[in-house]
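dumping this here before i forget
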Amino acid sequence: MAGAYSVYGQGLGIIAFGQPESLMAKKKNMIGGHLCAFAVAALMRSLMLDDGVAIVAATYITFWLMLTLDCLHSPAGATPACVYLSKAPLPETAAVLCIGLGLTALGQSLMKRLTKRRAQAMTRT
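structure:
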């Protein structure tokens, strides 16, 4: 499971830290997108569908839900596959996802503050 989550975590990190001002880097989008994806994948996992069908359906439904709820975050498109293929219980999978999202949001906030302070200090000199 850790390997699968490192794949989606890389996309999350690239957007959160490489493009911190983009629409998809907003906390609402990062958290909302992954929570939508987790909920859809958990539902698909409970239906016990064929892996390929379930992952494709969960990905399409996830993107539709993110667009409908205005929380589009493209790296969340990998979350349905990670959740569906994970052999870990759903509560454990949810915990890993929430911890990763929380740490990313915290790191992004700290980075934005440091960048802002650095810019202010440079304009003073």
